[in-house]
Amino acid sequence: MARATREDYEEVVRAGLAAFERWRMEPAPRRGEVVRQIGEELRKHKLDLGTLVSLENGKILTEGLGEVQEMIDMADFAVGQSRQLCGLVMQSERSRHRMFEQWHPLGTVGVISAFNFPVAVWAWNAFLAAACGDVVLWKPASPTPLCALAVTRIVDRVLAENGWRGVLNLVVGSGAEVGDPMADDPRIPLVSLTGSTAVGRKAAGRIAARFGRSIMELGGNNGIIVLDDADRELALRAVLFGAVGTAGQRCTSTRRLFLQRGIAREFTDRLAAAYGRIVVGDPLDPATLCGPLVDRDAVDTFAAAVERIRGDGGEILVGGRVLDRPGFFVEPTVVRAPLGFPFSFEETFAPILYVFEVDSLDQALRHHNEVPQGLSSSIFTDSVRASERFLSAEGSDCGIANVNIGTSGAEIGGAFGGEKETGGGREAGSDCWKAYMRRQTCTVNFSPDLPLAQGVKFEI
Ligand code: UN1
Fold this sequence. Notes:
By secondary structure, the protein is an alpha/beta fold. The protein has 13 helices and 19 strands. Helix content is about 40%, strand content about 20%. The strands form five sheets. Strands 10-11-12-9-8-14-15 form a seven-stranded mixed β-sheet, with helices on both faces. A five-stranded parallel β-sheet has the order 5-4-3-6-7, sandwiched between helices. Strands 1-2-19 form a three-stranded antiparallel β-sheet, with no helix packed on it. α4 (about 60-80) packs parallel to α5 and α7 crosses α8 (about 195-210). 2-aminohexanedioic acid binds near residues 70, 116 and 117.
């Protein structure tokens, strides 16, 4: 497949800048109308696009369709947002002065997306950015360019029907040819990057060096705490989806399970039995719950992780093997490990779940929060005290904290992102639109005088 060169990159950036000159002056609700039409087209092509996501990425079809639905939901959200890019009016300390803030588009927003959500995470950024009056430059992940091409074909058609081009742009290329120039390019005031903490750390440094803004959505190491009083059936289903869904390749995947001692043995047995029933195979077969990993490297990473876990004294309870068949299939794996198990501090992008036993909520929280990542977290309990404690300032330190819901599968209406090495960015719902605009504080004097703030006198 042909990949973009530096010259291609340059051409697309220029086209985007030219489009921005006009797009920023288009009334926001009219920009929203274009996004609405894109959402309508995505609805029409949901099955085809969802199937393509499954084929290219390997996630099972229901998740491929879910991913397209996430784009559609995001389009709807951005349409509404396009009428609500509201600023505050503040009280001026000076007589007959009006002080307010307004929001203007930033310019070109770079979106560097990951293979695991090859289109949805682009939509989180692109639809909001477009509603906000920005133009977008999208660099999809190297393993999943086809989904990006298919979506862009649809988008281009809608844009053209509305007399626009250059608003939502795609550049398929390597990190060196496209990603690095985006990080360094002062014409791109905001770069939103989804990927590993290692990739994000490098890019964030380059972007910060030129005072660019970034939204970083990086590694997770998400834990579920199951207390003795939990609804175990619910917890079991959530753990299965969180740990095995998307073959453990979500940044929100459940990687650590903290079981309170009273239920630990029984829960682990039931979990192992449930793992035994999971069908690993063709992602388009409705019986399959776990598709392949994305590529050979991912399989090697899984195998190396299992070896390291064994070497460090972790006990493989279930799975642990690379499946001997064409494709990149591995067994969903459960590991029993002592609290503080060093390798469990690292994110392995594969279906590996560590199970720990804890005495109390206090102990669970301490170990839950001790890893460097801080994306998503859950507690299963029927106790109001325990759940409120988990959600309090001394509870979970993550960007997402759920009660009786697993760690993955967030709705778009909330702000998505996490703390610590997850990067601190927030995307999708809530007030995330503000990241795609620049705030301007304005003061208008309609008095005949020129009073200075803080009572300063400066007269000739
Ligand atoms: C990701 O894995 O990068 O909450 C995003 C979830 C999805 C998004 C995951 N809505 O699991």
